[in-house]
Amino acid sequence: MLEYLTMLLKKLLPLLLILGSLTALAKADEQETPVAYYHASVLMYHHISTSTPPSTSTSPADFIQHLDMLEKDGFEVWPIDRVARQIKRRRPMPDKVAVITFDDGYISVYKEALPILKERELPFTIFVNADPINEKRPLYMSWAELKEAQEAGGIIANHTLSHTHLIRKLDDETEEAWLKRVEHEIAANQQEIIKHLGSAPKIFAYPYGEYNPEIQKLVQKMGYIAFGQHSGAASPYTNITSLPRYAANGTSANPTSLRTKLHALPFPVVNEEPVTAVLDGSNRRPSLKLTVMPGEYRIKQFRCYGPNAELLQVSRKTLADGNLEINVTSDKDLHTGRPRYNCTAPHKTQNRYFWFTRQWLMPQANGDWYNY
Predict the structure, then answer these.
(1) I want to staple 363 with a disulfide (CB 3.0 to 4.6 A). Which of 192, 232, 281, 342 is the partner?
(2) What pLDDT digit, counting tens, does each position of 79-109 carry?
(3) Which residues form the signal peptide (predicted)?
């Protein structure tokens, strides 16, 4: 028996050495790849039409051009749940990964986008609200049409029951009652999707991209991964309850500017202040402080821009741990609504940018909200 085992070991030894070498090479490659490259560019669409509101619409011709660009530039289009798992587990992804998402479940997505996606066999996600579907509003897909989209490889995910502004409390509403209402908006919508379509992942998109730390904690407690509407690449540096997406509608549908965003990398931001993006209306020139790890970006060319593309004031200093502290301020009042600070810096050796966006939620000067 001993002689047999010795002979077997001699035969297996070369194979074991090869497997060990391959494992070591894979680990080394994983360690050498910067975590900033573990990212995906998530595209956000609404209407695919030329007869709907321009700010939330993408023409069918532009949509086809976007898909052609993804193919030409060598992007892999992944299902959203696969990307979410990789980010949550901090696992590597190829450098060029894109995700296609649609908010609200408009009928134009069924009529215009679905046939194209089916023909190209591309995965996609539609974030839906059950109320307008159940009310059979003409601009929205039906459950039968959503089932067809699901069978074509689409993921149907949660966008709240009624598409409400989650951050806004009702008159005389307590903190506890407000959070219960938010929880109901998410949980009841999930039940409706499962009831009509059989399944739904724990993936969520905030209506209007509006959230605050309290809602993020609730979403995490409910077991969801969540997406906003602020720009940037989704990566391990972005909070799993506020992953960014690039708008691909309205003026953002321009293929040239969209290509720049698709190839952008996430800044390795490890802290940002203030934690909440919700402002009270009294300070209309908010400051933003970022703590950023060293990376392959040209820090001297770090720039931030306001909502009207105006150049913001930036100061930076190196901290004792080697990280950078970057302070961003504006000398102009922000408008009411969802204004943004967009920050970029070019890559040291590649023709691409690092990208970070902070979307603010600004009420009127007296603190009141209105539907914008």
Answers:
(1) 281
(2) 999 999 999 988 889 999 999 999 999 999 9
(3) 1-26
